[in-house]
Amino acid sequence: MGRWYWLIAAIMSVFIFAITLFPSHDAFGVLYVLVVVLVADRCTPRRLHIVGGVCVMLECTSFTILHFGEPFDGQYARLALSLIATVVVTILAARNRQATDALAEQARLLAHADRIATLGHLTVSIAHEVNQPLSAIGTFAQSGGRWLRRDRPDLQEAIACFEQIRASSSRAAAIISRVRDLTRKAPLAHARLDLPSLIEDTLLLLRSELATRGIDVRRHAAPNLPAIIGDRIAIQQIVMNVMLNAIQALETMTDHRRLITLTLAEDDTKHRTIRLQIQDSGPGFQHLDPDHLFAPFITTRASGMGMGLAICRNIALSHGGTIEARNATPRGAVVTVRLPVLEITS
């Protein structure tokens, strides 16, 4: 929770406490529910209970200072109503927070399951990508051995082979690392991200899938794009899901070029965002309202679950961004993702 919300909550509590010290304003203790509501979405249920307990203590303290020793009358009823309101709102807010956290956990598990399913779909492509550097390692190892076994060993050629072995092993390790990251089941870890680099990493995993289907990819990125703040694996999941949808849409196209265009640019609006636009030359959204594409269980494929775009929307919203889809002109589909720019404070 941000320190500013804690500061505002503290100031509000002190203000309400001061008001209730006046006899004509002792009923204003019910305003402590505003303090609870203010912090409800920005702290854990345990901290929320602590905040509620502090509000109850402040309310009882001001009442004791103002009415100590007085006979039982109407002001006690007002105190009871204020305390009940504070306690009930605290309990409801804590339960709502627990339900929200549980829903977020389920969404995270669903996103993880979607990544695993995606990797299952890409198994052949990933195996091909890993097999290429492994085959190169074997080839260069044999070549290096032959250069060293000559009557006059050629050390320069052997060293060049060993350098190729090193480069190929690094490439294989990078592919395995990317696959391992996608299987990671962990909470969102927001960090500084470079979108062009992230897209290149994603296309590397999809390269065989694209080549097998004869799909060309064009990339257009504006120069000097600012970084964004977000979870690398989650943002990569958006790109991969949208790309796979485009690839599957292009599979049936035989009458024209199969093309996917990725465009990165900055939207210079009041709230600066990076716009990632993925456009394909496929049939587009023929039988569905694009506004409904991001609803769960909506799919155009008989074998699809209809959760990919719904998960993408959830990820985009959790990063303070948006995602939308529309038909392109004259044909094809366009999916646009907007993510907020990392603001650097001086």
UniProtKB/TrEMBL annotation:
Transmembrane region(s): 6-38, 50-69, 75-94
Domain spans labelled Histidine kinase: 125-343
Reaction(s) catalysed (UniProt annotation): ATP + protein L-histidine = ADP + protein N-phospho-L-histidine
Keywords, in A-Z order: ATP-binding, Kinase, Membrane, Nucleotide-binding, Phosphoprotein, Transferase, Transmembrane, Transmembrane helix, Two-component regulatory system
Top-rank taxon: Bacteria
EC number per UniProt: 2.7.13.3
PROSITE patterns: HIS_KIN
Gene Ontology molecular function: any one: ATP binding
Coiled coil (UniProt feature): none
InterPro entries named among the record's database cross-references: HATPase_C_sf (IPR036890), HATPase_dom (IPR003594), His_kinase_dom (IPR005467), HisK_dim/P_dom (IPR003661), HisK_dim/P_sf (IPR036097), Sig_transdc_His_kin-like_C (IPR004358)
Any single Pfam family the record assigns to this protein: HisKA
CDD domains linked to this entry: HisKA
Protein name: histidine kinase
Organism: Gluconacetobacter liquefaciens
